[in-house]
Design brief:
Elements lengths: L6 E3 L5 H12 L15 H14 L2 H9 L3 E6 L2 E8 L7 E4 L12 H8 L9 E7 L27
Parallel strand pairs: 4-5
Antiparallel strand pairs: 1-2, 2-3, 3-5
Length: about 160
Amino acid sequence: MTPAGIRPFRIDVPQHDLDDLRARLSQTRWAASAGEEYGFALPRLRRLAGYWLAGYDWRAQEARLNSYPQFVTEIDGQPVHFLHVRCGDGDAVPLILTHGWPGSVVEYLDLIRPLTEPGETGGQAFDVVIPSLPGFGFSGPASSPGLGPRSAPRGPGPS
């Protein structure tokens, strides 16, 4: 059962959106070469665009994220996406992992299993919540400037 105001979420980016991104990247009109003192170095940017065009498998990443329970809710008027992985142990401790800027929930995917399934180590088991900060991932856009891990909207409970 999902508490009121919390809705299950599944990533399902339409193929035409991915095709559009690929077309835009392949049609990029590159500026004249300039060093990093003028911003992002052009050779580095070209490598990054090439990776998105030929090396990145969006569907594999989408499937990896969808292998975890995801939800959306509203906190202080902000739409917030989050992963919530329960360990199934009645003695589990809730643990919130919050990414920084720039960042995403992807930073923590490799930690979910060791935290929720401590196994033979006999360590503490956790119920893990990993929110996408407003303006990141599948959360809504930030409604005010200066939002970060320390100023993110908070749910009910002690501050």
